């Protein structure tokens, strides 16, 4: 690992009180911080005592560098001791010198003295951004501390290493050979008891049939490839009878659509489930009935459906509520319309994407975006519309992630990449960039 060096080229001047003069000054120059390969922090500085720095013969001044972190962390570095002439001789004679003699100096008044200070200590993360202070302490006779001054020297700020980020990449979405879509709907048609014929004016049938008709009119007949209808009856009445009703009523809806839209019989397929116990269980799970646990136990059991209904009837209050509120909703016809969409040019897609994006493929929307300047509001809106229209499409998610990376929204980019195909080079590239950016933020 290379050493990281910070050089503070500054001239720091401090003023101290002295015994013989009211003010004494010194200088600190070339403060340097070096992060070594053994994970230690090296601190260097030049302490300059100019000619006019007068220190009384019987006094001593101590210069102690101190690191202060933003979280009140502290590291005290080895001090520099500067003695007056008499103080030096007496301390040496009485063996009162500091143990660390590396930073022990005798002041020669009227001479410029330069002290090249250097020390190192184990590096901790809090030191990056810490301030370095210089504490000056004057001592008189008998080592009595007279005055202390603290001066800010500098701040340790290590330059962030330059991160070689891969370029943001968009993928060209796969082109659909056939633009196949599925429309899903549910109809709640009412039938007189035991009847399997649709009466358009019966109860709410006019509304339900109008909804189905409106849906089908939204397609050109040549677009429709198939229609699947699955009919359900409720658990009320014997299972065999419900099978007859579910099958017959499903066929009735098929014939209504065939006659209304003049479709071929082969286009519509039908299926049926005599009793919708899955829907029943959903109602039970969401209910607040006091018999809820028992109702769910019965519904989930493996006994014959008629036995389930018989056991439910043994709770008359709950059964009447179920009969009036759940059973009508369990009589329904689910339908799926498979249709195909025409292909559009980029120019056509650029117009359609604003109001009818469901008519377009992800590929067509991407081609429309290429007509706009990359990074423009319209470009991003098309990329965003693609992923909103097809939220599970891997290509749309890769491009949405690329957009968010360009906008600096790392959290959003990460969310989209979770739905991308990470085997593609574009997704891998954008994920690498995201990881590097997240690491660099820490």
Q: What is the element layout, followed by pairings?
A:
Elements: E1 4-16, E2 24-35, E3 40-49, E4 60-68, E5 74-76, E6 80-83, H1 85-93, E7 104-106, E8 113-122, E9 131-139, E10 145-155, E11 180-187, H2 205-217, E12 224-232, H3 239-261, E13 268-273, H4 277-285, H5 292-300, H6 305-313, H7 316-325, E14 332-340, H8 346-355, H9 362-369, H10 377-389, H11 394-407, H12 410-417, H13 425-441
Helix pairs in contact: 4-5, 8-9, 9-10, 10-11, 11-12, 11-13, 12-13
Radius of gyration: 42 Å
> β content, as a range?
25-35%
- Helix % is 25-40%
- Per CATH, which architecture of the largest domain? 2-Layer Sandwich
Order of helices and strands: EEEEEEHEEEEEHEHEHHHHEHHHHHH
* Individual helix count: 13
Q: Could you characterize what this model shows?
A:
The chain is of the alpha+beta class and 442 residues long. The chain has three domains: 4-155, Immunoglobulin-like, CATH 2.60.40; 187-339, OmpA-like domain (60s Ribosomal Protein L30, Chain: A); 342-441, Serine Threonine Protein Phosphatase 5, Tetratricopeptide repeat. It contains 13 helices and 14 strands. The protein has helices at 85-93, 205-217, 239-261, 277-285, 292-300, 305-313, 316-325, 346-355, 362-369, 377-389, 394-407, 410-417, 425-441, and strands at residues 4-16, 24-35, 40-49, 60-68, 74-76, 80-83, 104-106, 113-122, 131-139, 145-155, 180-187, 224-232, 268-273, 332-340. Strands 4, 5, 6, 7, 9 and 10 form a six-stranded mixed sheet that branches. It starts with a strand and ends with a helix.
